[in-house]
């Protein structure tokens, strides 16, 4: 792979390394700026000192990469909005006292079971001008209205921290929001919001209004709710309305990427625009005009589609491609990709932690490197077979890049991905082209009913196909344990095998074998780490879940019927490479490592005179005198899980404070672990 020979690639790697370094230590903006300026001066000096000398390349290259590392630290630092003096964090009441808050709606998010959710910009806190993004949760009821993007509201509420996951190895929504520069959240009701301004003044707001207009026009035709949700996702970049079962079907079929407007979609649209605007090439300065028009249309589409991370990075990349193609500039694909990454990370360094960002670039780098190797292996003479073969090689090549990341984040592998992509990729251009035509005609009230019905049929067939693929459960490999060390080893192994193909040198086989030994060593290490016993009192609202880990087995005790397949226990087992045993009823006593846990349930019975109790777990809101229990068994701590009434928990907490005994509430402190 000649990847590292391109200077922009090396500079981009330096920038990424700097952004990652900034996560481990915090530096003030002024200091970061001084260090950056000094590094630029040194790099310039190195260039002129070693100019026209043989070792110029080495020293200047090293200095330039070091400057990019410092640049990465700097851009990451200035993007941490909490450092700003006007951030609303500095005006937040420590005791969570209700405050008068004015905010502007920025983006509508996918609702959860209880709330409609939005990204908002905090404008004022108790009449103090502020800034900073937050998450707004609006309690759902029959009268709840969707808030319009750009509208400004005021309400009186508390500012809360984003909660960390309460159970071990669970998905951290807090870390996800942190990468979106969101650190706090608000809760309110629709009736408690007061509209201050109802005007659209940003591109995001105009784009939202335009999408609403499109949906209003499309609802006049016979599109079902599922079909409209797929149209919104496929063309308008809005996935909030997709039904969970339908979304899971696309995920399990290995086709979820087509529901996120990204490189595939923008690339197809670029091809469509290049074809439609080809007549412009015949006029004076035609290529230049065509390039400008394409860029304007691409970025207009990106704005209309919501300007999400995937859309922005895809549009940036293909804008560079469009410039190269239409202005007849030769450009290496690695330089193009690296340039787009460099530009995007300068604008928003947190993109590097975005899963979609990682997957899309891993896929593209893999395609441009591996697909040229696979495609010549078979040369079908039939044009249709040749198209299908090329599609298959692109799909398989992409998997080399995305499988390690997918296994790490999602712990599953849809083995029928090739069939899904073999069917959908060749026709996606037709779907997008037809969809754009349908939307355009609908907007000007010229959409014929038969054309809407044809498009509806195409979307319905696509949904049906992926639902069928998803039902082939024997081809979906789930619950695969894969850690970050294995991800790194996987990519290095792919790189060494690729180098062996190019150079046919024995050293690359030696490196590959060493990496395979590394996998085995990691497996042995993980197995040794799993040895021993641990007891977990997980947090689950309304239920009790106790897990006892013995080496690589996890025995669950619960009153929750689907505890074995629940996200809490299943995710914990997958992350730690454990096998879940058949669940058992909750027992009154647990012994582990010479420590005893007493479970007191709704019956309130605890006859344990001859046992030394270390911990007492209260479940199912037992009506007991806690003072008497503490005096009777003298435990080291009292634990209350998520199955108890809140009023009971508050009373128990007060009692423990008076008795000067530790009190653990899983709903606040998270799962209780005896290890």
Helix content: 40-55%
- Tell me what portion of residues adopts beta-strand conformation: 15-25%
Major sheet attributes: 8 strands, mixed
**Strand tally, please?**
20
Number of helices: 21
Instruction: Determine Rg (CA atoms, Å).
Output: 29 Å
- Quaternary assembly: single chain
Poorly predicted sequence stretches spanning 5 or more consecutive residues: none
Cα shape: globular
- In whole angstroms, the N-to-C terminal distance is 47 Å
| Structural class estimated from helices and strands | alpha+beta
Mean pLDDT: 86
Quick structural gist:
This protein is α+β, with helices and mostly antiparallel strands and 675 residues long.
Describe the fold and architecture.
Helix 8 (263-276) packs parallel to helix 10 (309-326), helix 13 packs antiparallel against helix 16 (484-503) and helix 16 (484-503) runs antiparallel to helix 17 (506-530). The protein has 21 helices and 20 strands. The two termini are 47 Å apart. Strand 2 (115-125) and strand 3 (128-129) form a beta hairpin. The relative contact order is 0.07. It is of the alpha+beta class and 675 residues long. The chain is globular, with a radius of gyration of 29 Å. The strands form 4 sheets. Strands 1, 2, 3, 4, 5, 6, 7 and 8 form an 8-stranded mixed sheet that branches.
Task: Give structural attributes.
alpha+beta, globular, 675 residues, five-stranded mixed β-sheet
SSE arrangement:
Layout (H helix, E strand, L loop, with lengths): L6 H15 L7 H21 L6 H23 L20 E10 L6 E11 L2 E2 L3 E7 L12 E6 L1 E3 L11 H6 L3 E7 L5 E4 L5 H16 L6 H10 L9 H9 L10 H14 L9 H19 L4 H18 L6 H15 L7 H20 L8 H28 L2 E2 L2 H27 L5 H22 L5 E2 L6 H20 L2 H25 L2 E8 L2 E8 L2 E6 L8 H9 L3 E2 L8 E4 L2 E6 L14 E4 L7 H8 L3 E4 L5 H14 L3 E3 H4 L2 E3 L1
Parallel strand pairs: 4-7, 13-14, 16-17, 17-18, 18-19
Antiparallel strand pairs: 1-2, 1-5, 2-3, 2-4, 5-8, 6-7, 9-10, 11-12, 11-20, 12-13, 15-16
Helix pairs in contact: 1-3, 1-11, 2-3, 6-15, 7-15, 8-9, 8-10, 8-14, 9-10, 10-11, 12-13, 13-14, 13-16, 14-15, 16-17
């Amino acid at each position: 792979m000649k990847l590292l020979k391109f200077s922009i690639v090396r500079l981009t790697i330096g920038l990424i390394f700097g952004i990652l370094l900034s996560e481990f230590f915090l530096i003030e903006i002024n200091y970061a700026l001084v260090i950056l300026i000094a590094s630029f001066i040194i790099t310039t000096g190195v260039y002129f000192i070693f100019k026209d000398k043989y070792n110029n390349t080495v020293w200047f290259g090293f200095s330039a990469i070091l400057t990019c590392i410092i640049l990465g630290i700097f851009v990451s630092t200035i993007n941490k909005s909490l450092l700003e003096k006007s951030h609303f964090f500095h005006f937040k009441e420590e005791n969570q006292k209700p405050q008068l808050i004015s905010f502007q709606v920025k983006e509508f998010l996918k609702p959860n079971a209880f709330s409609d959710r939005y990204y908002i910009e905090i404008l004022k806190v108790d009449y103090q001008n502020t800034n900073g993004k937050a998450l707004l949760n609006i309690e759902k009821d029959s009268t709840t209205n969707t808030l319009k993007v750009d509208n400004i509201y005021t309400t009186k509420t508390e500012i809360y921290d984003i909660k960390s996951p309460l159970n071990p190895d669970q998905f951290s929504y807090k870390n996800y929001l942190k990468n979106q520069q969101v650190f706090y959240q608000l809760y309110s009701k629709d009736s408690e919001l007061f509209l201050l301004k109802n005007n659209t003044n940003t591109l995001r707001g105009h784009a939202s209004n335009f999408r609403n207009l499109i949906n209003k026009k499309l609802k006049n035709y016979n599109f079902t709710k599922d079909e409209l949700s797929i149209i919104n996702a496929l063309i308008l970049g809005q996935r909030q309305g997709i039904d969970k079962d339908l979304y899971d079907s696309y995920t399990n079929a290995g086709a979820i990427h087509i529901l996120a407007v990204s490189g595939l979609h923008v690339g197809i649209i670029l091809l469509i625009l290049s074809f439609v605007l080809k007549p412009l090439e015949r006029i004076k300065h035609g290529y230049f005009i065509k390039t400008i028009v394409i860029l304007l249309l691409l970025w207009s589409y990106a704005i209309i589609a919501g300007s999400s991370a995937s859309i922005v990075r895809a549009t940036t990349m293909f804008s560079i491609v469009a410039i190269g193609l239409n202005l007849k500039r030769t450009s290496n694909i690695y330089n193009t990709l690296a340039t787009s990454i460099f530009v995007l990370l300068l604008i928003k360094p947190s993109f590097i932690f975005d899963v979609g960002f990682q997957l899309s670039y891993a896929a593209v780098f893999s395609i441009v490197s591996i697909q040229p190797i696979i495609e010549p292996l078979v040369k079908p003479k039939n044009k249709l077979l040749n198209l299908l073969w090329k599609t298959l090689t692109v799909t398989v090549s992409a998997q080399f890049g995305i499988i390690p990341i997918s296994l790490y984040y999602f712990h599953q592998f849809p083995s029928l991905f090739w069939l899904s992509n073999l069917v959908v990729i060749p026709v996606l251009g037709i779907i997008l082209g037809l969809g754009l035509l349908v939307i355009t005609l609908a907007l000007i009230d010229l959409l014929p009913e038969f054309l809407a019905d044809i498009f509806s049929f195409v979307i319905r067939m696509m949904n049906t196909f992926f639902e069928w693929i998803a039902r082939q459960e024997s081809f979906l490999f789930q619950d695969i344990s894969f850690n970050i060390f294995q991800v790194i080893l996987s990519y290095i192994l792919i790189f060494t095998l690729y180098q062996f193909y190019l150079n046919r040198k024995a050293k690359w086989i030696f490196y590959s074998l060493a990496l395979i030994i590394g996998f085995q060593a990691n497996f042995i290490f993980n197995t040794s780490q799993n040895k021993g016993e641990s007891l977990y009192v997980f947090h689950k609202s309304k239920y009790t879940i106790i897990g006892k880990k013995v080496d690589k087995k996890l025995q669950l005790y619960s009153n929750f019927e689907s505890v074995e397949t629940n996200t809490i226990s299943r995710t914990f087992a997958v992350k730690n490479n454990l096998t879940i045993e058949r669940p058992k009823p909750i027992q009154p006593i647990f012994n582990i490592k010479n420590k005893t846990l007493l479970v007191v349930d709704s019956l309130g019975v605890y006859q344990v005179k001859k046992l030394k109790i270390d911990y007492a777990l209260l479940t199912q809101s037992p009506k007991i005198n806690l003072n008497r229990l503490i005096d009777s068994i003298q435990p080291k701590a009292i634990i209350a899980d998520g199955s108890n009434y809140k009023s009971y928990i508050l009373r128990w907490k007060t009692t423990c404070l008076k008795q000067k005994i530790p009190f653990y509430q899983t709903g606040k402190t998270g799962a209780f672990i005896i290890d």
